[in-house]
Amino acid sequence: MLAKLHGFSASLPPLPAIVRYFDDFHNETRSIRDIASSRRIIVQIDGTERPIDFDAFGPLEVVMRHVVVDWFQRLDPTTVAIMVADFERFISRRGIEPIAYLFVSSPYDGRSFWSTNVLSNIEAKESHALRAALHSFCRLNIGQWSPPAASIIRGLTSPKVDKYRVVRAGDCFVPIDQQAMIVNHIENVGAKLASDPASVDNEELHDVCMLVVSFQYAFRPGQIARIELADVRCFSTDAVHIAVSIIKQQDNSQRIRVNRKIKREWGPLFNELVKRREQGVIKPKEGVPPRLLFGLTPAGVSRAIMSLTDELTGEPWTPTDLRHTAAQRLADDGTSRAVLSEFMGHTSDRVIDVYIDKSPAQAKRINDALAISPIYKHVAKIAKTKTIDKAMLLGLPPEKQIGGVPHGVPIAGIGGCNLGQGLCTKNPVLSCYTCTDFMPLGEAEIHEEALEGLRPVVVEFAAASRNNQLSPAYSQLKATFDAIRRVIGAIKSDGEEGTQE
User: Fold this and answer.
1) Among 72, 233, 279, 385, fewest CB within 10 Å belongs to which?
2) Biggest CA pair distance of the chain
3) Cα 115 from Cα 1, distance rounded (Å)
4) Strands (E) located in 232-363
5) What is the pLDDT along the chain (501 residues), one digit of tens a residue?
6) Own/partner long-range contacts of 134-141 (Cβ < 8 Å, ≥24 apart)
7) φ and ψ at 47, to 5 degrees?
8) 350 burial type by CB count under 10 A (0-12 exposed, 13-18 middle, 19+ buried)
9) How far apart are CA 66 and CA 72, in angstroms?
């Protein structure tokens, strides 16, 4: 086999002196020189350097140089780097012999060998890289491979992988009460900005704006990182429009730009961010082009959003989690496949079926709102539950003892407030359970009574809004019930642990 490989290598045409690719993060064309002799090349991707080490291919080195050049001429550089890494991983696990056999065999022998020797021990991503290399062999007419054999390669089977397993399982969805925490934080920063812009520091403003575009519009980290200052249009009415590229497409010609309108109440946050960026008060990170609004790499965007959501909710939610959650919110509200596909930036609506299939039925939505659905089994971490006992509650000043009559239902004694109801601009009781200043009473029975007292109100609003989850009253009530149930679960868990000790 190796002798045949050396024969292929000797018959191949010379490699180009310069290979060019477009770095869309820095918005410039880059050149790779001496790819025929360099043992290692560096590819600039998303503000980071990704090496390609040809020594890792061993005896396949020469033919793989031609394959990599072919990939650069047709594919996105990020895709090239990923496939090279997957190719190298297969070699590290199984050696070069299976690949060498595929390269030197005829297409029909290669198909048989794939089914009997390769498929049983190959990962899905590795199979995509190997098939891509064989497609390059066809285009380059290497060995017995030629363009007509491409149909045989397309018929090669890959391991079955459920790419949306986390969506089907629901593990990636941010619970409704934690979504309320995120919205509360955005609105609180907006209120601080309105009263005194200097009270909002640069990092807080910068991070909350990234959180907005991720939470509201399901943007990927690469999309958020690539938003330019020129892409943000701020109007005197506080309206803000942002242009974003749909970047995750196999065909570069399909990378279109879409316009998104930021929620009016959150527009001033972006006005202030743009102003500080233009004044040089907020500077981009080292190595990030100054034209980019947030001044971070995609990896930096992910880290910032995970850190902020961890601080707000106790769970480090990724931009991908927020993306899935935003899609599920729309699916739950009955959004059509076409509209949801456009929102997610997909060229096909087949992927959207996973969200439609996951969407609960109308009766189940009411159960969710009533907090009796078994799907909500999340229990808040005890360390995050700032409970107080009855003596502490009675010792608080009256304005810090929570009470109210929401929708005609008198509720009191559920806990205390660090801020004080006189300074709270929100609806007492209904907003308390999702507020970071709330100190719940450490008696589960009190919260269970509050839960039961509000059930008729939820049914009333569910009927009035026809289960429209975008209805403010319905959404607020649902978030409140989820949060009450978490508090009850945390208190009971705390009591069980105390008993065991």
Assistant:
1) 279
2) 89
3) 20
4) 232-234, 240-245, 257-262
5) 667 777 777 788 899 999 999 998 999 999 999 999 999 999 999 999 999 999 999 889 999 999 999 999 999 899 999 999 999 999 999 999 999 999 999 999 999 999 999 999 999 999 999 999 999 999 999 989 999 999 999 999 999 887 778 887 778 888 888 888 899 899 999 999 999 999 999 999 999 999 999 999 889 999 999 999 999 999 988 899 999 887 654 444 456 788 889 988 899 999 999 999 999 999 999 989 999 999 999 999 999 999 999 999 999 999 999 999 988 888 877 777 788 888 888 766 667 878 877 665 444 554 555 544 433 333 333 233 456 777 777 777 777 777 766 655 666 677 777 766 666 666 656 677 777 677 788 888 888 887 777 777 766 666 665 555 545 556 666 777 777 887 887 777 766 655 554
6) 134/102, 134/110, 136/66, 136/67, 136/70, 136/71, 137/63, 137/67, 137/103, 139/70, 140/12, 140/66, 140/67, 140/70
7) 80, 5
8) exposed
9) 10
Return the number of other C-beta atoms located less than 10 Å from residue 82's C-beta: 17
State which amino acid sits at residue 416.
Answer: G
How far is CA 284 from each of CA 27, 201, 296, 398, rounded to the nearest angstrom? 16, 15, 7, 48
Residue 222, both tokens: 């690469």
Q: How many other CB atoms sit within 10 Å of the CB of residue 17?
A: 11
Neighbours of 264 (CB within 10 A): 11
Residue appearing with tokens 């690719």:
21
The tokens of 153 are what? 């390669």
Q: Which residues contact 336 (CB under 8 A, 6 or more apart)?
A: none
Q: Which tokens belong to 472?
A: 């403010």
Pair of tokens at residue 321: 């989690």
194: its two tokens: 């309105």
